[in-house]
Every structure is written in structure tokens, then in C-alpha cells.
């Protein structure tokens, strides 16, 4: 029997795993891949984004409530999940606004990356998914998530770095999650318009700069059959996701027809692979990957 393949997804807040790459994870889990979500912060400074949940009892216990939501989403997706123990930096309202003392985005890189290096050395993923260096969207925790993920990918295999966090392990591929591409939203927008549905994306697309993607999509993972699980996991984050809001404006069946993949940019690879890919594990063979092989 070959050893199972392992996938690690690194996220900033509870709910990010359900809005970025969730169907990919749900699919791989059901194909026998071990999947671990590492959530860097507890989401303590997230606002309640669903008006139906904006109640004093919920706001007062937001950290606890978000943990319970994360548990439910984890069960739905079938993944393992761990919090890395940092405190949400919050989304500043302007560039001048200072970040709160002690928050994740203000940590020194080696302090911020250490728990993730330890998790990589323990879980031993073949593939890591994270955000691009703009964070996918400009939340300081998302940008920091990119930095610690790249650091962990580069350092976890080096026995001289991060002593005391376990035996070295070198992951083989690093991906940036690319769900928010202009191409995808244009395609959904056109399909909705063509069917006489109002599209919520027009202003957004108009504001999008027309320039070549900094991180071109290299890898499209077919996962339309898992969009329903993705949506259930999103809804489990009830304080963050309004069932009548942004995520659900485009009918699921239309998404499945028009854009049946979740997309990625292959940022680092230590294996030979041919682009474009349709599998995050392309070029990796579990039975050839022994624990001692770096
Ligand atoms: Zn987030």
C-alpha cells in the first residue's frame, strides 16, 4: 500500500479555508489525501458580516463563536484543522491606522513562522497552498500568511533552521490560491447577464485594472461536484457569511457549468511537472516519497 499524499492549506482566519480552495480540499479528502488546514489567527477582530448574526451576545463572544463555526466547517469539508495561536490584526480602515499591539501581522517573521514550521515538520505535507504576496486581498494578516508560508516552505527542510521544532521535512510544491481572477468573474458576469439575471459583479470588474496577472494560473483543479460542500462550509461560518450576500449571488449550477475549477499558481516546485496542470500532486508519487526523502 502506498503512503497517503498530504496537503496543507495555510489560512489567516477561520472562514478563509471555506472561501478559498474549499472544494479542492473536499475533493482531495474524498480521494484519500490527508488534508490539514493551519489557521494562523483566531479571527478575534473580524466584524460580524451577517446582519442576522449581529447580536450583542455573539459580538461579546466572537472568538468562541468563530471556533465553533470552524469546527462545523472542518467536519463538513472532512479536513483536519489547527489554530497556530496568533491574534487577528483586524482590517485597518486607512493606511495610517496603526495595527494593534501584539497582533499577528506585527510579529517578527521567525516568531510568526515557527508554529507553521513545526506543523510542516510534524504533518509532512507534499503540497502547501497559501495566498500570493499581495495576500489575495490587502488584509495585513493575509499578506503575513504568504510570508510565513514561504518561510516555512523554505526553512522546514533545513536541519539548521528552527531548532527544536521537529525533524526536517521538505514539501515539494507551493501554490498560491487564485480564486479572485478577473477572468473568472467576467465569465460568471457574462453568463448571468446572458440569462437575464442581474449581475453583482459589473462595478467590481470595471474597477479591475487591465494588466497581465502577476501570478498566472498554472493549475485548474476540477471540483464542481464539491461546490455544494464548499457552500455548506461557508454557511457554517454564520457570523462571517451572509446567506443572502456576495458568495451566493451566482447560482451554484451556473458556477458548476461556467467555472467548474478552483485555480492556482504554482509558485515553487521541486518536482518535474508540465504546465498547465489539473492536479496539485502532478509530478508527485506517494510511493516514491519516503519520509526520509527530501
Ligand atoms: Zn481572512
UniProtKB/TrEMBL annotation:
This is Mycothiol S-conjugate amidase. It comes from Nonomuraea indica. Binds 1 zinc ion per subunit. Zn(2+) binds at residues 13, 16, 142. The lineage of its organism: Bacteria, Bacillati, Actinomycetota, Actinomycetes, Streptosporangiales. It comes from the Bacteria. A mycothiol (MSH, N-acetylcysteinyl-glucosaminyl-inositol) S-conjugate amidase, it recycles conjugated MSH to the N-acetyl cysteine conjugate (AcCys S-conjugate, a mercapturic acid) and the MSH precursor. Involved in MSH-dependent detoxification of a number of alkylating agents and antibiotics. Gene3D superfamilies: LmbE-like. Its cofactor is Zn(2+).
